[in-house]
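Students often ask why we bother predicting the structure of a whole assembly rather than each chain alone. The short answer is interfaces. A chain on its own may look different once its partners are present, and contacts between molecules only exist in the joint model. In this exercise we take two input lines together and write out one structure for the complete complex. Read the inputs first and try to guess which parts will touch.
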Amino acid sequence: NAGVTQTPKFRVLKTGQSMTLLCAQDMNHEYMYWYRQDPGMGLRLIHYSVGEGTTAKGEVPDGYNVSRLKKQNFLLGLESAAPSQTSVYFCASSYLRQPQHFGDGTRLSIL
Amino acid sequence: EDQVTQSPEALRLQEGESSSLNCSYTVSGLRGLFWYRQDPGKGPEFLFTLYSAGEEKEKERLKATLTKKESFLHITAPKPEDSATYLCAVSDSNSGYALNFGKGTSLLVTP
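Now the answer. The structure tokens for the assembled complex follow.
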């Protein structure tokens, strides 16, 4: 039972490049979330989904897009990466609003 | 204005030296207060959920308590393996599906 799996674990991009971060969960959770964690700041919610085919904006959604085509997967896209998006990205899932369970993160550097 | 404030930012203890971490919050309609542990390079690991003032939860050397304004994470006779960053997060009636995280307390337990 893997829980929440994020790929890739590390990535370096150049400004203006695009990429997609993948999150997969095997707990049959309805809710999924994308957060970013920056030094000196708490985790901040980017986007979330309350079910297959639905997505919504969180606290810091600008510059990101998401898709939830399958219940177990939640994708986070950066269309044109900027240095300000250098961060550690965490995916989480939960059964309704029960405690959120996190993956081990994707460390993204944008040069 | 921070809704969730954790103190101290960092704490160094000797093995066996008990102490407490604080999480103060200013939200209306608290739906839940969550404690997580985060090890370097890993995602947050869920520890406890507290829902109402007076509630307490225990797990091994950790005990979490909740009042109307703050929560404490008491660590009794800590061991070096308890070294980690401890995160507090709240869910309230205004935050929707988001968890509002504090910046964390970095705990180091030395032998």
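Check your guess against this: The interface with chain B takes residues 4, 31, 33, 40-45, 48, 50, 56, 58-59, 90, 92, 97, 99-105 of chain A (CB under 8 Å).
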